[in-house]
Amino acid sequence: MKLHLLHKNLRSNVLFSSFTDDEFLKLWHYHPELELVYIVSGKGTLYVGDFIGSFESNNIFLIGSNIPHMFDSSPDFEGESSSIVVHLNYDFLKKLGMLGEEFNHINSLLLLSNRGLKFNTKESQKFKKLFHELEKTSSDEKVLQTLKILYRLSLIENLAKLGSIEWIDQVNIKDDRINTVIEYIMMNFKNEIKLNEIAEMVAMNKTAFCRYFKKNTHKTFVNFLNGVRINYACKLLKENNATNSVSMACFNSGFNSLSYFNRIFKKNIGCAPSEYR
Question: Is 146 helix (H, G, I), strand (E, B) or coil?
């Protein structure tokens, strides 16, 4: 009887969905549920908090509660983009982790997921069958399959933590105006962004907006915007692509001056872009 009740409760706290289209929906968003994502096919740029990196087929990500994120498909990917997504109720998983040693791995994943996780690509390829079985099984079996996946993911040692703790802790994304501004930045940072237009967007003058933005992000607007652009430039420079020169990374990430880009890059990262590359 206990197993039946636990199973029923789990079923109402695990939501399965799959997506297939020419590209993933480019939407900067967050929600209280954890998001477990398996990329069946596709590639592009993943944004999690202040993290900007790549995603590709067979990647697995676990994105924690209320962490803003977005999957931006690459326009040069040939074929359909497809993913399997499971949303997990945070409060229920937390209670589940308190039931005994058998669920200690749940606590570990909850703790690690607060910055977002990317699992080792070689290991994640072994999960392909498990995720595809989620599409074919009944609602009851989906719950058990999800628990199996979470357990096996907890055994992987080589994990990449994504967003920084400082960003997650300091940025007040639950403030509607701040979230509106950050969403706009994430969607448009490659283009020119004018401070006065941003201030008008949230019905403030420039002085009030700058003070308000720093209070809710612990960074000036310019520093925040430059940080996003530098993170994206790092992503471009890390890609194994001979055409990704320093100048290309500069202009494709939203800067319009190479000398200014070099100065800001060294200030944020600690080395010149050419050394980083």
Answer: helix
Q: Which residue do the tokens 């993170």 mark?
A: 231
Q: What is the pLDDT of residues 68-103, one digit of tens each?
A: 999 999 988 888 999 999 999 888 888 877 777 777
Do 90 and 65 touch, CB atoms closer than 8 A? yes
pLDDT tens for each residue of 113-134? 999 999 987 888 889 999 988 8
Nearest to 96 by CA among 184, 158, 198, 7: 7
Could you tell me if residue 63 is left (phi over 0), alpha (psi between -120 and 50 degrees) or otherwise beta? beta
Query: What is the CB neighbour count within 10 angstroms for residue 111?
Result: 11
Question: 244, 221 in Cβ contact below 8 A?
Answer: no
Handedness of CA 106, 27, 162, 174 (dihedral sign): negative
Nearest alpha carbon to residue 113 among 59, 168, 71, 166: 168
Distances (CA, A) of 227 to 52, 218, 220, 265: 11, 13, 11, 9
Angle 48-54-16 from CA coordinates, rounded to 5°? 60
Residue 8 φ/ψ, nearest 5 degrees: -65, -40
Q: Where are the beta strands (DSSP E) in 155-267?
A: 159-161
Residue 177, both tokens = 């105006």
- Across-strand partners of 36? 62, 86
71, with CB counted inside 10 A (0-12, 13-18, 19+), is buried
What is the residue-averaged pLDDT of the chain? 88
Strands (E), the chain: 14-21, 34-41, 43-48, 51-56, 60-63, 69-73, 81-88, 117-119, 159-161
